[in-house]
Design brief:
Layout lengths: L25 H12 L10 E5 L5 H8 L4 E6 L2 H13 L4 E5 L14 E4 L8 H11 L8 E7 L8 E9 L2 E8 L1
Parallel strand pairs: 1-2, 1-4, 2-3, 4-5
Antiparallel strand pairs: 5-7, 6-7
Keywords: Methyltransferase, Transferase
Organism: Candidatus Sneabacter namystus
Pfam family, one: Cons_hypoth95
Length: 179
């Protein structure tokens, strides 16, 4: 897996072999960023990015490569965090990778412009729980964009207003704002 565009183009992303997460394919990453680049409401340039359930960090690192200002990556897996921190240091990236439970976030120090949620498919209700935690602990506000990558059986989220959605094979990408 490599960064697709920007100043980190073709850099290999950190990947924990044998880990149960499924890295985001380049096709899905490209679809997300094409949608964002061609919609002024979803603009990510100079944005503060939050990547929950970050895994390899492919969303956050791609956003930084394309012009985001800063990224915070959160994952519970120790190895994902370790390899992500090495990638950040080796490439002098303006990011932090933190080992936290995305469903039980502490109070925020920063409100994020764009939040990316890609929980494991087996983690039912993870997006709903993460959104509740984000709102309760002030990680997002009414101008924040929430990008969710889910299977096609995605739930409705009463606290969110859908801006746009795209279906790619068996994956749904949905862009939201708070209601």
């Amino acid at each position: 897996m490599k960064i697709l565009k920007g100043y980190l183009k073709n850099k290999s992303l950190p990947y924990v072999k044998g880990h149960l997460y499924r890295p985001m394919t380049s096709v899905i990453r490209e679809a997300i960023f094409n949608t964002m680049e061609h919609n002024s409401e979803l603009h990510f340039y100079n944005a503060n990015i939050l990547d929950l359930f970050a895994g390899s960090g492919s969303f956050a690192f791609e956003a930084l490569s394309r012009g985001a200002k800063h990224a915070t990556l959160i994952d519970l897996n120790v190895k994902c965090v370790k390899y992500g921190k090495i990638f950040i240091k080796e490439n002098c990236i303006n990011a932090s990778f933190i080992q936290l439970n995305a469903l039980a976030l502490p109070k925020a120090r920063l409100v994020y412009d764009i939040v990316f949620l890609d929980p494991p498919y087996h983690a039912s209700n993870a997006i709903k729980a993460a959104i509740t935690s984000l709102i309760r602990n002030n990680w997002i506000n009414e101008s924040s964009i929430i990008v969710c990558k889910t299977d096609l059986k995605e739930q409705n989220y009463p606290s969110l207003n859908e801006i746009k959605s795209t279906i790619l094979r068996k994956t749904k990408i949905t862009f939201y704002k708070l209601c």
